[in-house]
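User: Hi! I'm working on a homework problem where we have to compare a predicted structure to a textbook description. Could you give me the structure for the chain below?
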Amino acid sequence: MQIYEKPVRILMKDMADALVLQPGQQFTKEQATDWFAQYHPKIKTSTIAAHLVRLSTNVRSRLHHKPKPDEDDLFFQLDAEHYRRYNPNQDPAPIHSSDEKPNEKTPLEEDLDPQGSSEFAYESDLRNYLAKNLSIINLGLTLYEREGVNGIEFPAGGRFIDILAVDSNGDLVVIELKVSRGYDRVVGQLMRYMAWIRQNQADPGQKVRGIIVACEISDDLLLACSETPDVQLFEYELSLALKPINIDRTETKVGEKNIVAPKHKETERWSGKKPVKQVVWEAVEELTSGKTDFEFAPKDVFALILKKYSNFNRDTMTAQITADCVNHPSRRHHRSVDDKYWRIKQGKYRLYDPKRDK
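Assistant: Happy to help. Predicted C-alpha coordinates:
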Protein backbone atom coordinates (compact mmCIF):
# COMPACT_ATOMS: atom_id res chain seq x y z
CA MET A 1 0.00 0.00 0.00
CA GLN A 2 1.49 3.31 -1.14
CA ILE A 3 1.17 6.15 1.39
CA TYR A 4 2.23 9.15 -0.68
CA GLU A 5 1.77 10.02 -4.35
CA LYS A 6 5.30 8.82 -5.06
CA PRO A 7 6.57 5.38 -3.95
CA VAL A 8 9.38 5.34 -1.38
CA ARG A 9 11.97 4.24 -3.95
CA ILE A 10 11.32 7.47 -5.88
CA LEU A 11 11.27 9.54 -2.70
CA MET A 12 14.73 8.14 -1.96
CA LYS A 13 15.97 9.72 -5.17
CA ASP A 14 14.34 12.99 -4.16
CA MET A 15 16.19 12.75 -0.85
CA ALA A 16 19.54 12.22 -2.61
CA ASP A 17 18.89 15.28 -4.77
CA ALA A 18 17.77 17.34 -1.78
CA LEU A 19 20.95 16.51 0.12
CA VAL A 20 22.90 17.68 -2.96
CA LEU A 21 25.16 14.65 -2.79
CA GLN A 22 28.35 15.15 -4.78
CA PRO A 23 30.42 12.25 -6.19
CA GLY A 24 32.06 10.48 -3.25
CA GLN A 25 30.14 12.48 -0.64
CA GLN A 26 28.85 10.33 2.22
CA PHE A 27 25.54 10.46 4.03
CA THR A 28 24.25 8.49 7.02
CA LYS A 29 21.16 6.43 7.65
CA GLU A 30 20.26 8.99 10.32
CA GLN A 31 20.36 11.81 7.76
CA ALA A 32 18.01 9.84 5.51
CA THR A 33 15.66 9.17 8.43
CA ASP A 34 15.66 12.85 9.43
CA TRP A 35 14.86 13.97 5.89
CA PHE A 36 11.88 11.63 5.69
CA ALA A 37 10.72 12.68 9.18
CA GLN A 38 10.65 16.30 7.96
CA TYR A 39 9.08 15.86 4.53
CA HIS A 40 7.31 12.49 4.60
CA PRO A 41 6.68 11.65 8.27
CA LYS A 42 4.33 8.74 7.59
CA ILE A 43 7.17 6.62 6.21
CA LYS A 44 8.44 4.32 8.95
CA THR A 45 12.08 3.97 9.91
CA SER A 46 12.18 0.31 8.94
CA THR A 47 10.82 1.12 5.48
CA ILE A 48 13.58 3.68 4.99
CA ALA A 49 16.23 1.17 6.11
CA ALA A 50 14.83 -1.49 3.78
CA HIS A 51 14.95 0.89 0.82
CA LEU A 52 18.54 1.84 1.57
CA VAL A 53 19.30 -1.87 1.24
CA ARG A 54 17.24 -2.22 -1.93
CA LEU A 55 18.93 0.76 -3.60
CA SER A 56 22.51 -0.11 -2.56
CA THR A 57 24.26 -1.84 -5.44
CA ASN A 58 26.72 -3.84 -3.29
CA VAL A 59 24.31 -5.27 -0.71
CA ARG A 60 23.36 -8.84 -1.59
CA SER A 61 20.21 -8.87 0.52
CA ARG A 62 18.78 -6.23 -1.84
CA LEU A 63 17.72 -9.18 -3.99
CA HIS A 64 14.92 -9.97 -1.52
CA HIS A 65 13.26 -6.70 -2.53
CA LYS A 66 13.57 -7.32 -6.30
CA PRO A 67 15.46 -4.17 -7.32
CA LYS A 68 15.03 -2.94 -10.87
CA PRO A 69 18.32 -2.83 -12.81
CA ASP A 70 19.53 0.72 -13.46
CA GLU A 71 16.43 2.31 -11.90
CA ASP A 72 17.30 1.09 -8.38
CA ASP A 73 21.10 1.31 -8.66
CA LEU A 74 21.36 4.49 -6.62
CA PHE A 75 23.64 4.03 -3.60
CA PHE A 76 26.82 2.26 -2.53
CA GLN A 77 26.98 1.07 1.08
CA LEU A 78 30.22 1.86 2.94
CA ASP A 79 29.21 0.28 6.25
CA ALA A 80 26.04 -0.31 8.24
CA GLU A 81 25.44 3.43 8.73
CA HIS A 82 27.18 5.19 5.82
CA TYR A 83 26.34 5.42 2.12
CA ARG A 84 27.21 7.44 -0.97
CA ARG A 85 25.95 7.65 -4.53
CA TYR A 86 26.78 4.71 -6.76
CA ASN A 87 29.56 5.50 -9.25
CA PRO A 88 29.45 3.13 -12.25
CA ASN A 89 32.93 4.23 -13.31
CA GLN A 90 34.65 3.04 -10.15
CA ASP A 91 32.28 0.72 -8.26
CA PRO A 92 31.77 -3.00 -8.95
CA ALA A 93 28.82 -3.97 -11.10
CA PRO A 94 25.51 -3.87 -9.17
CA ILE A 95 24.23 -7.11 -7.67
CA HIS A 96 21.21 -8.15 -9.69
CA SER A 97 21.22 -11.94 -9.33
CA SER A 98 22.20 -14.62 -6.84
CA ASP A 99 24.48 -16.72 -9.03
CA GLU A 100 26.72 -17.51 -6.08
CA LYS A 101 25.68 -18.46 -2.59
CA PRO A 102 26.75 -15.76 -0.12
CA ASN A 103 29.27 -16.60 2.52
CA GLU A 104 27.46 -17.79 5.62
CA LYS A 105 28.70 -17.11 9.11
CA THR A 106 30.47 -20.12 10.56
CA PRO A 107 28.08 -21.69 13.07
CA LEU A 108 29.15 -22.08 16.65
CA GLU A 109 30.57 -25.50 17.40
CA GLU A 110 27.72 -26.29 19.78
CA ASP A 111 25.20 -25.55 17.02
CA LEU A 112 26.59 -28.20 14.69
CA ASP A 113 24.60 -31.39 14.26
CA PRO A 114 26.38 -34.53 13.10
CA GLN A 115 23.23 -35.64 11.26
CA GLY A 116 23.71 -33.03 8.57
CA SER A 117 21.51 -34.84 6.07
CA SER A 118 18.42 -34.10 8.15
CA GLU A 119 18.79 -30.33 8.07
CA PHE A 120 19.29 -27.48 5.61
CA ALA A 121 22.92 -26.75 4.78
CA TYR A 122 22.41 -22.98 5.03
CA GLU A 123 20.05 -20.85 7.07
CA SER A 124 19.32 -18.91 3.88
CA ASP A 125 17.93 -22.10 2.30
CA LEU A 126 15.57 -22.62 5.24
CA ARG A 127 14.58 -18.95 5.16
CA ASN A 128 13.88 -18.88 1.43
CA TYR A 129 11.85 -22.09 1.59
CA LEU A 130 9.68 -20.95 4.48
CA ALA A 131 9.20 -17.49 2.97
CA LYS A 132 7.48 -19.20 0.03
CA ASN A 133 5.59 -21.71 2.19
CA LEU A 134 4.53 -19.83 5.32
CA SER A 135 1.18 -21.60 5.42
CA ILE A 136 2.90 -24.78 6.66
CA ILE A 137 3.64 -22.87 9.88
CA ASN A 138 0.22 -21.26 10.33
CA LEU A 139 -2.68 -21.20 7.90
CA GLY A 140 -3.21 -17.69 6.60
CA LEU A 141 0.37 -16.61 7.33
CA THR A 142 1.79 -14.46 4.52
CA LEU A 143 5.02 -12.59 3.90
CA TYR A 144 4.99 -8.93 4.95
CA GLU A 145 5.02 -6.60 1.94
CA ARG A 146 4.65 -2.85 1.85
CA GLU A 147 6.00 0.00 -0.26
CA GLY A 148 8.07 -2.30 -2.48
CA VAL A 149 9.90 -4.14 0.33
CA ASN A 150 9.13 -7.52 1.87
CA GLY A 151 9.71 -9.31 5.15
CA ILE A 152 12.79 -11.34 4.18
CA GLU A 153 15.79 -10.13 6.22
CA PHE A 154 13.68 -7.24 7.41
CA PRO A 155 15.82 -4.45 8.98
CA ALA A 156 15.20 -3.87 12.68
CA GLY A 157 17.40 -1.39 14.52
CA GLY A 158 20.68 -2.22 12.80
CA ARG A 159 19.94 -5.97 12.73
CA PHE A 160 17.84 -8.12 10.41
CA ILE A 161 14.81 -10.27 11.18
CA ASP A 162 14.88 -13.57 9.29
CA ILE A 163 11.24 -13.31 8.24
CA LEU A 164 8.53 -10.79 9.08
CA ALA A 165 5.06 -12.10 8.30
CA VAL A 166 1.41 -11.15 8.72
CA ASP A 167 -1.16 -13.60 10.09
CA SER A 168 -4.83 -14.03 9.17
CA ASN A 169 -5.82 -11.44 11.81
CA GLY A 170 -3.52 -8.82 10.29
CA ASP A 171 -1.07 -9.03 13.19
CA LEU A 172 2.71 -9.09 12.71
CA VAL A 173 4.73 -12.28 13.23
CA VAL A 174 8.49 -12.22 13.79
CA ILE A 175 10.09 -15.50 12.70
CA GLU A 176 13.59 -16.43 13.86
CA LEU A 177 15.33 -19.40 12.26
CA LYS A 178 18.07 -21.75 13.44
CA VAL A 179 19.29 -24.19 10.84
CA SER A 180 20.54 -26.62 13.51
CA ARG A 181 19.71 -26.69 17.21
CA GLY A 182 17.85 -23.87 18.93
CA TYR A 183 19.15 -22.80 22.35
CA ASP A 184 17.59 -20.52 24.96
CA ARG A 185 19.67 -17.51 23.92
CA VAL A 186 17.55 -17.19 20.77
CA VAL A 187 14.63 -16.11 23.00
CA GLY A 188 16.37 -12.85 23.87
CA GLN A 189 17.09 -12.22 20.21
CA LEU A 190 13.46 -12.85 19.27
CA MET A 191 12.07 -10.71 22.10
CA ARG A 192 14.33 -7.81 21.05
CA TYR A 193 13.02 -8.02 17.49
CA MET A 194 9.42 -8.26 18.67
CA ALA A 195 9.84 -5.18 20.87
CA TRP A 196 11.43 -3.23 18.03
CA ILE A 197 8.64 -4.13 15.62
CA ARG A 198 6.01 -3.29 18.24
CA GLN A 199 7.54 0.15 18.85
CA ASN A 200 8.61 1.07 15.31
CA GLN A 201 6.60 -0.91 12.78
CA ALA A 202 3.24 -2.05 14.17
CA ASP A 203 0.20 0.12 13.58
CA PRO A 204 -1.95 1.13 16.59
CA GLY A 205 -3.79 -1.95 17.86
CA GLN A 206 -1.70 -4.32 15.75
CA LYS A 207 -0.34 -7.20 17.84
CA VAL A 208 3.12 -8.76 17.51
CA ARG A 209 4.02 -12.37 18.25
CA GLY A 210 7.05 -14.57 17.60
CA ILE A 211 7.93 -17.96 16.14
CA ILE A 212 11.18 -19.91 16.43
CA VAL A 213 11.91 -22.63 13.86
CA ALA A 214 14.87 -24.97 14.36
CA CYS A 215 15.96 -28.41 13.34
CA GLU A 216 15.87 -29.37 17.01
CA ILE A 217 14.42 -27.48 19.98
CA SER A 218 16.63 -27.85 23.04
CA ASP A 219 15.16 -28.45 26.49
CA ASP A 220 16.45 -25.10 27.78
CA LEU A 221 14.74 -23.27 24.90
CA LEU A 222 11.51 -25.14 25.59
CA LEU A 223 11.75 -24.16 29.27
CA ALA A 224 12.51 -20.51 28.45
CA CYS A 225 9.51 -20.25 26.14
CA SER A 226 7.15 -21.77 28.72
CA GLU A 227 6.98 -18.27 30.27
CA THR A 228 6.50 -16.42 26.98
CA PRO A 229 2.92 -16.92 25.76
CA ASP A 230 3.44 -14.91 22.56
CA VAL A 231 6.10 -17.31 21.21
CA GLN A 232 5.58 -20.58 19.33
CA LEU A 233 8.21 -23.25 18.69
CA PHE A 234 8.51 -25.44 15.61
CA GLU A 235 10.94 -28.16 14.57
CA TYR A 236 11.50 -28.89 10.92
CA GLU A 237 12.52 -32.24 9.49
CA LEU A 238 13.85 -32.97 6.02
CA SER A 239 12.96 -36.21 4.33
CA LEU A 240 13.24 -37.69 0.87
CA ALA A 241 10.94 -40.41 -0.38
CA LEU A 242 11.01 -41.97 -3.84
CA LYS A 243 8.25 -44.02 -5.41
CA PRO A 244 8.19 -45.66 -8.84
CA ILE A 245 5.88 -44.12 -11.44
CA ASN A 246 4.24 -46.45 -13.94
CA ILE A 247 4.66 -45.33 -17.53
CA ASP A 248 2.01 -46.46 -19.99
CA ARG A 249 3.87 -47.16 -23.23
CA THR A 250 0.94 -48.76 -25.05
CA GLU A 251 1.08 -47.88 -28.73
CA THR A 252 -2.13 -46.63 -30.31
CA LYS A 253 -2.50 -46.56 -34.08
CA VAL A 254 -3.97 -43.45 -35.64
CA GLY A 255 -4.19 -43.81 -39.40
CA GLU A 256 -0.74 -45.03 -40.47
CA LYS A 257 1.16 -43.52 -37.54
CA ASN A 258 1.99 -45.11 -34.23
CA ILE A 259 1.56 -42.70 -31.32
CA VAL A 260 2.96 -43.56 -27.91
CA ALA A 261 0.51 -42.67 -25.15
CA PRO A 262 1.79 -39.88 -22.88
CA LYS A 263 3.11 -40.54 -19.41
CA HIS A 264 0.35 -40.69 -16.84
CA LYS A 265 0.98 -40.15 -13.16
CA GLU A 266 -1.57 -41.14 -10.56
CA THR A 267 -1.40 -39.86 -7.03
CA GLU A 268 -2.70 -42.45 -4.58
CA ARG A 269 -4.26 -41.50 -1.27
CA TRP A 270 -4.49 -43.50 1.91
CA SER A 271 -7.88 -45.19 1.91
CA GLY A 272 -7.30 -48.13 4.23
CA LYS A 273 -9.83 -49.28 6.80
CA LYS A 274 -7.38 -49.04 9.70
CA PRO A 275 -6.80 -45.62 11.28
CA VAL A 276 -3.39 -44.04 10.72
CA LYS A 277 -2.60 -44.31 14.43
CA GLN A 278 -3.14 -48.08 14.35
CA VAL A 279 -1.09 -48.59 11.19
CA VAL A 280 1.88 -46.74 12.67
CA TRP A 281 1.59 -48.47 16.05
CA GLU A 282 1.49 -51.95 14.51
CA ALA A 283 4.63 -51.19 12.50
CA VAL A 284 6.45 -49.90 15.59
CA GLU A 285 5.39 -52.96 17.61
CA GLU A 286 6.67 -55.26 14.88
CA LEU A 287 9.95 -53.38 14.70
CA THR A 288 10.60 -53.20 18.43
CA SER A 289 8.92 -56.46 19.51
CA GLY A 290 7.53 -54.45 22.40
CA LYS A 291 10.97 -53.78 23.94
CA THR A 292 11.16 -50.33 25.53
CA ASP A 293 14.94 -50.11 25.13
CA PHE A 294 14.90 -50.71 21.37
CA GLU A 295 15.75 -47.55 19.42
CA PHE A 296 14.10 -46.93 16.07
CA ALA A 297 14.02 -44.27 13.37
CA PRO A 298 10.88 -43.10 11.51
CA LYS A 299 12.38 -44.25 8.21
CA ASP A 300 12.51 -47.85 9.52
CA VAL A 301 8.88 -47.67 10.57
CA PHE A 302 7.93 -46.29 7.16
CA ALA A 303 9.76 -49.12 5.39
CA LEU A 304 7.66 -51.66 7.27
CA ILE A 305 4.43 -49.79 6.56
CA LEU A 306 5.17 -49.67 2.82
CA LYS A 307 5.37 -53.46 2.71
CA LYS A 308 1.67 -53.60 3.58
CA TYR A 309 0.38 -50.24 2.41
CA SER A 310 2.18 -48.96 -0.68
CA ASN A 311 0.20 -45.72 -0.82
CA PHE A 312 0.84 -44.65 2.79
CA ASN A 313 2.15 -41.10 3.15
CA ARG A 314 5.42 -40.59 5.01
CA ASP A 315 4.50 -37.14 6.32
CA THR A 316 1.32 -38.60 7.81
CA MET A 317 3.39 -41.22 9.65
CA THR A 318 5.86 -38.62 10.93
CA ALA A 319 3.03 -36.44 12.23
CA GLN A 320 1.48 -39.42 14.02
CA ILE A 321 4.74 -40.32 15.77
CA THR A 322 5.14 -36.69 16.83
CA ALA A 323 1.58 -36.60 18.21
CA ASP A 324 2.07 -39.78 20.25
CA CYS A 325 5.58 -38.92 21.48
CA VAL A 326 5.36 -37.93 25.14
CA ASN A 327 8.32 -35.53 25.16
CA HIS A 328 8.21 -34.12 21.63
CA PRO A 329 8.05 -30.29 21.78
CA SER A 330 5.71 -30.13 18.77
CA ARG A 331 3.23 -32.54 20.30
CA ARG A 332 1.09 -29.74 21.68
CA HIS A 333 0.06 -28.80 18.16
CA HIS A 334 -1.82 -32.11 17.78
CA ARG A 335 -5.25 -32.72 19.26
CA SER A 336 -5.59 -36.50 19.39
CA VAL A 337 -2.58 -37.95 21.22
CA ASP A 338 -1.59 -41.17 23.00
CA ASP A 339 1.45 -41.80 25.19
CA LYS A 340 3.31 -44.32 23.04
CA TYR A 341 6.82 -43.08 22.17
CA TRP A 342 9.82 -41.39 23.76
CA ARG A 343 12.13 -39.13 21.77
CA ILE A 344 15.82 -39.86 22.47
CA LYS A 345 17.19 -37.27 20.06
CA GLN A 346 16.38 -35.98 16.63
CA GLY A 347 15.36 -38.89 14.42
CA LYS A 348 15.66 -41.50 17.21
CA TYR A 349 12.80 -42.88 19.32
CA ARG A 350 11.89 -45.80 21.58
CA LEU A 351 8.72 -46.99 23.27
CA TYR A 352 7.50 -44.87 26.16
CA ASP A 353 8.16 -46.39 29.59
CA PRO A 354 6.04 -44.62 32.26
CA LYS A 355 8.17 -46.05 35.06
CA ARG A 356 11.38 -44.33 33.98
CA ASP A 357 10.28 -41.57 31.60
CA LYS A 358 9.18 -38.37 33.28
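For your comparison, note the following. The longest strand covers residues 172-182. The chain has three domains: 8-85, 114-235, 251-351. Good luck with the assignment!
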